[in-house]
Write a structure and sequence with these properties.
- With 132 residues, the chain is α+β, with helices and mostly antiparallel strands.
- Helix content is 26%, strand content 47%.
- It is built from 3 helices and 7 strands, in the order αβββββββαα.
- β1 and β2 form a beta hairpin.
- α2 runs antiparallel to α3.
- The chain is elongated and about 50 Å long.
């Protein structure tokens, strides 16, 4: 890839232990950081950061947008290459709304705990992605 083309796009790879979720070029990506979402654009400074549960938004070169849910992980940016290693992840196509609603009801009936709060956040984020 030429230097000029490199300044207008990012090489993006999103992996989870289960599968490769995305490999390709993007004009930008927004990731859910531990202290809030942040954007990564061409010529971004080198970075390693942890991610929280949330939605990744990828702006594709053709102007389209791709979204997916991650349950934490890490993002690395270096020389126009963005590698995202997600603890687990789902795309809109892999989310079953009825299953998520049932899971939310089941979790909500359990006693309070810090694990419960994180599980509720995971389920609600998937429901939110599916609705939008």
């Amino acid at each position: 890839m030429s230097e000029a083309a490199n300044t207008k796009s990012l090489k993006l790879s999103i992996l989870s232990p289960e599968r490769n979720l995305f490999t390709g070029e993007a004009s930008s990506v927004i990731v859910p950081g531990e202290v809030g979402s942040f954007g990564i654009y061409p010529n971004h400074a080198p970075l390693i950061a942890s991610m929280d549960v949330g939605i990744i938004q990828i702006r594709l070169i053709d102007g389209g947008t791709l979204k997916m849910v991650v349950d934490g992980g890490f993002v690395e940016v270096k020389n126009g290459i963005v590698n995202i290693l997600a603890d687990s992840a789902d795309t809109i196509d892999t989310i079953d709304s009825k299953e998520m609603e049932a899971k939310l009801a089941a979790i909500s009936s359990e006693p309070a705990s810090s694990d419960k709060v994180k599980e509720i956040k995971k389920v609600k984020t998937r429901i939110l992605l599916k609705q939008n």
